[in-house]
Amino acid sequence: MSLLQQDKDYSAFLVELKNRIKSAQIKAAVSVNRELIALYWELAEKIVEKQKTSQWGDGLLAQMSKDLKEEFPDMKGFSLRNLKYIRQWYLFWTSEDVIGQQAVAQLANAKQHATQIPWGHNLLIVSKSKNHEEALFYVQKTIENNWSRAVLTHQIEGNLFGREGKALTNFSASLPAPQSDLALQTLKDPYIFDFLTIRKKHDERELENALISQVTQFLLELGAGFSFIGRQHKISVDDEDFYIDLLFYHVKLHCYVVVELKAVAFKPEFAGKMNFYVSAVDGILKSEKDNPTVGMLICKSKKKTVVEYSLKDINKPIGVSEYQITRALPDELKSSLPTIEEIEAELGGGE
After folding, report:
1. What is the C-alpha to C-alpha distance for residues 169 and 171, in angstroms, rounded to an integer?
2. What pTM does this model have?
3. CA 347 to CA 341: how far, in whole Å?
4. Full set of structural domains in the chain with CATH
């Protein structure tokens, strides 16, 4: 028998933990994950508190792991490794020195949200997040979108926290407050098209083809709520046909979203053309139940002041973002798309 097992305080402490675990096992039939995470939180809280007030030292977790596994052989989660994770996870959420009711509210909020996602998701978030704000962002997004761990990993590695809501827009002036805030959160800057493999010097058509060929990954990068309607969507105005690069409907915003791709830096004239497209969709496709159409310009690069001046007096809601491709092919490789000259040459040869 170890010294810890002979300690009366430890024995009483262990009995208390065992009773709590047994209680959690009963409730787990109703809500397995919520009770499990709540149990982990309470275990960690008690462990941290006891380590502050006792002389048990580093051997506490090892002894606890041994005793709890003996008592609950069919219950996972009491390995020494996981007990260390539980403690680190709890310390992450309680690490900031915030005074007063704000600290209490923040702690309760963190605990409430953490119990709504699986333990593996919790560990991933706290291991990859720099602070509470970032971690809570990913917890809430996981809850809202029911992300798998693979999708969550993708979003964290793509720094969604640092990109969402960062696009340059005129939404605050062109949309009512509730919708403008929500619309802004649907846009990112930059968009990361790391699933594409195309030339560095590609054109819009090549980019569009590549995105549509990987439409599942493209929708994942756009974010939850986007429903793809079509590419090169034709709209007719005064017997003249115009073609929108990509047209979506956003189920949360309840509106059409016009997406124009530009494989060059943003130019002021792009805003005027997008304004026309958004107005046309409002006039032709939008129903009385739909909210105002939103325009998204995704460009290779942009300059902040140029974008702001271009959008300043436009009444239609438009956002401008950049995109990045991390696996671009060398420029020497020929595009899979024929040039205008090549097409004309082929036609000429046929004649």
Report:
1. 5
2. 0.76
3. 10
4. 3-148 (no CATH), 164-324 (3.40.1350.10)
